[in-house]
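Question:
Write out your own:
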Amino acid sequence: GRAVNANHFVLLSAFCVKNPWLQFQQAKLKFEAALQEQSDMTWTIVRPTAFFKSVSGQLEVCQMGSPYVMFGDGEVTRCNPIAESELAQYLVESATDKSRLNKIINLGGPDE
């Protein structure tokens, strides 16, 4: 953002960073923290749940007989997937929507 004099940064993070067990989750949280600590520009962090494409891909792999990896009892990894096109639209709108400035937004599930 700084190299092009941007005044707002929209970060695509992930809902799963709430339980940062994996290295990519920890890296996303580190980037989120750095973004929140800087003062050069405003920011929006969007944490979507899984994409429909990702979930359907996992189902196809299981249907072919491959194992499915589940963390714990599956309760903390449940989610309501989001369509990629809806996520893309939300990200674009976040670049100009003043109500989303300097906020972390969980987008999608899980049902609570």
Notes: The chain has a mean pLDDT of 84. The radius of gyration is 16 Å. The first helix runs from residue 23 to 37. Residues 51 and 57 are 10 Å apart (CA to CA).
